[in-house]
Amino acid sequence: MKKRIYVWLHNEFNDRKLALFAEIVILATAPYLLLKKFFDFSITDILKLHFSNDVAGGFLLITTTILIIAFIIRVIALIFDNNPPLSVDKIKLDDVTAFLASDNNDISVIIKKCKSQKHLSITEMYNEDIFYDKVALIIVSLVNHILKGATQIELEKNDIFISLYSYNRASNCLEYVAHNSLRYTVTSRTISLSHEKFSNYECVKCCNSVDIAQYVLKNESYHKGISKRYDTIKQYMGYKLTDERNDILFGFLNIEFHRLEPFNNEDEMKRFMEEYIAPFKLLLEQQYLKFDLSKQFEDHNKKLKVVQE
After folding, report:
1. pLDDT of residue 123
2. Which of 31, 52, 68, 205 has its CA 20 to 30 A from that of 157?
3. If the chain, 309 residues long, is cut into consecutive pieces of 10 residues, what is the mean pLDDT of each piece?
4. Do the Cβ atoms of 239 and 213 come closer than 8 Å?
5. Domains in the chain, please, with CATH?
6. Cross-strand partners of 240
């Protein structure tokens, strides 16, 4: 409730007409004060010559009140300009903590297996099935995390659509991995980064550029496909999943907001990403690194066997 009041006040005091009124009153006061100081000019004295003292006193009271109101409006507007309301509340990363605890438990199980078995394949510890289970869990946790934070508007689970794609280096394509919604489906299972058909897709534009993120504030500029969910999409943000040190693209994370608009501007979207999405983005990149590492170890072991034979 307090947040909604704050947002309402922010919008009211940043109204252009109100701001223009305050600035005109304050600007008009400055030259009048200079005339009064250097030339002893006074409007009230002029009024007293032609009207009664009550009229002059009333005029002075009204102008002083207007000046005070304009000054208050300007000060409050400056405060709101420097402290804009964010569309989400600050929340604890309970979902991240729970996932890390689960991940640490899995690592402990692997260590026990290593101690108890003489021959253990690295793919038994972390394989494709485990990878898919982990990333699906992260996506569900991310949806819950957003729902906990976006308290300004009444977002529901079906208002958030998150899809994850992995990058296939051989074909230069993004390949579908998982999504969160039962209401909406994914029609583009494979997205080529070099085919003209997909050139307007936000994920393709981002992957083919140096940018790490893509933001769409208004749905008019969002490239719409044939899926039914494009009828209700309002805002979009997408992020590359990478190993920056080795300059490797793992995949792409799409986040769509349907029915309602959680963000007022792109700066809010960027702050939201940095404060709320980034931990889950790192978790996804961690799973890709672990999966890639397991494959590298397996290949390394095969090469060692060949050399030893």
Report:
1. 62
2. 205
3. 57 72 79 71 67 72 82 80 56 64 71 66 69 87 79 73 93 93 80 91 93 86 62 89 89 91 85 85 89 76 63
4. yes
5. 2-82 (no CATH), 94-306 (3.30.450.40)
6. 252
**Tokens of residue 192, six digits:** 């080529």
Least Cα distance to 238 among 216, 264, 258, 271 occurs for 216
What's the pLDDT score for residue 237? 93
pLDDT at 272: 83
CA angle 151, 157, 161 (to 5 degrees): 110
